[in-house]
Structures are given as structure tokens and as C-alpha cells.
Amino acid sequence: MVKPKDGNKPKMAVPAGPKAPAAGAGEEVSLYAADKARFNRAADLMGLDDRPRALLNEPRREVIYNVPVMISQSRTPGENGRAKSFLAYRVQYNDVYGPYKGGIRFHPQVSLDEVKALAAAMTWKCPLLEIPFGGAKGGVAIDPHAYGPADIEALTRRLTYEMLPDIGPDQDIPAPDVNTNEQIMDWIYDTFCMHASNKYNVTNAAVVTGKSVACGGLAGRAPATGQGLFLAIREWARDHKQPLKGLRFAVQGFGKVGAWAASFLHDAGCRLVAAADVRGAVAGPRGLDAHGLAAHARKTGSVVGFPGAAGVSDDEFFSAAAEVFIPAALENSVTARTAPLLKCRVVAEGANCPTTPQGDQVLAERGIDVLPDIFANAGGVAVSYLEWLHNHGAQPFDVEYIARFLADRYARNYAIISETVKKHRTDWRTAAYIVSLTRIGEKVIHRGLYP
Ligand code: NAD
User: Fold this and answer.
1) Three-state DSSP class for 288?
2) Is the pTM of this model over 0.90?
3) What is the pLDDT of residue 15?
């Protein structure tokens, strides 16, 4: 059992630069179009009823906000003391399975297309661990590392004010994502309370998850996405009679998801042989200490320069000899260019949308398994659900309960998706969509299409 180390301390996010992993030449650039193609493929294969199909075909709401902020701590000359506006998005894809749920990311490449795709992914993800939430996502187009904490706080509070008509404890519940953290969630909660018609209502805390424990968060939330990823890999290893001890893995993105996944795998006896982040990549074929590397990344802002690890190029990183490859950074990482480099047997998707359709094709041709994002990284939203229940009056759930809860959900649903792969003679990603659409579809049919 891995104990959270430092997981709940308020801190600014791990530095990440503006560059994103580039898709190969000629590859699909619209993430939303890629999701739509996957949705249609699954819906066709399973013969999805036309009512859920029509309901789930497009997002219910797409909101664009203008967020003006007085800047005081910019690293860009001439910005301090002046007002600047940032574009923000919230896409509420669907709420038939439960209230809208999805993170907010701060990144310069945030776009409406990206947020739509990520909101769709949340919609498919929650049913896969039987979590009664719908799907949403938000983002602000900003490089947060170019600003100081006072600017980030002002941006967060103004964004929350702009979102007030759209979010709420039983309406739409944001959470952390790339470059957002507990501190930012606490500011969202506080700003929401300041404007709530009943500021003393204790359930106001349920407006956002991933908060600090002091504000109603759970100690087990910070590790949860990485923990779920570990459990998905453990199920795959069991299924393939592959002992965890000595299993080699490489992780791209050593932030909240990647570092925790690496720590859980390390504690189970697996061997971290390569790690990468926005600044570069390191390798240690005999095994790197995942906890030490996480501490180094927290301290220095990067995996680069970890004592005892060799600096390697991007291509060397992708080519590392490892049974498991974990993309846990941004989208478009496993592409027609990078997929042929991989030496792994399974890609376990910690990031959302890390594999392009062309990347998927290469993996399929090479017989590499994929544990898709909508299943593999669902541990975070599952534990967000427990935090949300706690904020609605349930006792806090401890890390032992969370470990059992996640292990049970992953084992049961891994088996169901695996059966679906066999039944429909399809790949894991399509099977995961089919399981999710079956669950949502059943509810739509019972509820009926209004009016
Ligand atoms: P984070 O900001 O904590 O960490 C992101 C990491 O990715 C950092 O190490 C950063 O350096 C690295 N990175 C950024 N650009 C890169 C590049 N071009 N090349 C290599 N590395 C790069 O973010 P996070 O919360 O860990 O999220 C990572 C991914 O996991 C995202 O796709 C996110 O949507 C997804 N996800 C997060 C959660 C969650 O609970 N935080 C849940 C489900 C899915």
C-alpha cells in the first residue's frame, strides 16, 4: 500500500512549458473529430439505439468566457500594472448519467476543440467505473508559468465569478487538471461561497473536488489518478500472466498523474527505466527510484538532472526497452511517428487523448495493447466522487477505503471490458466506449427523450 507523500500540500503546479508533443505530419489535428470517429465506430458496432445516439452526438453546452485580470507579477516586460484578458472555455458535454464533472486546465494551447474532446472523454469515463457523473471540461488559454501566484489567484477568482451561472455542487463540479492544483480548487470553492445565496451551506464545498483536506478534500484524492492507472496495469498484468516484479515501465509526464503512477508501480516491484517531461528525458535501465525522482521533480521542476540517471533524447525515450509505456503528459503523444519506436507490450494512457487515430493504427498493427484513457485514468474522478459524497455529508473516506474501492472497481470493469473485446472482436478502446455507451444508453432509454 503506497502512502501519499507530500500529496496534499498546497503548491503551485509542476512547471510545464508551452510546447506540446507534436502529432506527426498529416495526422488528425482535431481532437474532437478523433473522439467523434471513435464514438461512431463503437455506436455502429454495438447498434446503439438512436435516442442515446442523438443525445450524445454533440455537447449540450459550450461556453466561452472573457476573463479580464489586473496583472502584477508577469515575467513579460510591460504587462505589470496593466489589464489583460484571457479566453476560457467550459464545455458541458452531457449530464444524463449525473451532474457535469471535469477538470480545468491552464495551458497556452487550450482551445474549444480540445475542451470539447476532453469533455466528451469525461462523459465516457465516469460510467466505466460506475461513477454517477456526467462529462464536462474547462480550460484557460494561458501559460501559468509566465505569471506569479497573485495573478493566478486573480485569474482563478474572476474565472469562477464568470462561471457562477454554470457551476454548482449538484450542477457542474470542476477539478484539477494540467497546471491546476489544490490551491486553485480552494480558491474556486472560496469564491463560490462568497457569492452563494447561502454561504453557510456546508455542501458548498461540493462545488469543486481536488481541494485541500482543510477545505473538505480527501487525503487520497491527489494520488488517485496514478493509483487507478497502476490498478489498470495490474489487471492487465494478471490477465497476461506477467509478474509485476521486475516489469519495466517508462513514463512521459512526471506531474500529478505520472509521478504517482510511477510511485505505485515502483512500490509493487516494477522498474522505472525512463521518464520525460516538458524539459527533457532521463533513463536508467537498471531502474530509477520513482519516489526520489518525484521529489527531485517537485524540487527542481523537472526530471532532468536526476542524480544517477542519464539524459536521453526524445526518440531514445520512446525507444526505451520497457513492457509498459505510460503517456501522462498531454494529447497527441503516441503518433504515427512515435508509435513505431515503442518497444512495449501495452500503452497505459494516463493522459487524456494521448494517442492519435494513426498512432492507434500502428499500435494495432504491431499487436501492442492499449489501456485507453477513459478507463485507465478514471481513478481521479472516482475518488472525486467520494470527496463529493463527503462534502454532501458522508464521513471522510480514508486511504485504505479508497484503495479497496478503486481495486474493486478496476477489477470488475477490466473483466467487463475484456469480455466486450471478445464479444465484439474489437480493440480495447472501442470496447471501453461500448461498455460506457451501453450504461449511458440504458439510462436514456429508461428516462426517455424529453418531451
Ligand atoms: P500536471 O500539470 O501535474 O503534469 C503534466 C506533466 O506533463 C508535467 O510533468 C509536464 O512537464 C509534462 N509535459 C507537459 N508538456 C510536455 C511535453 N510536451 N512533453 C513531455 N512532457 C510534457 O498534469 P496532470 O494533472 O498530471 O495531467 C497529465 C495528463 O493526465 C493530462 O492529459 C490530464 O488531462 C490527464 N488527467 C489528469 C487527471 C488528474 O487527476 N490530474 C485525471 C485524469 C487525467
Assistant:
1) strand
2) yes
3) 35
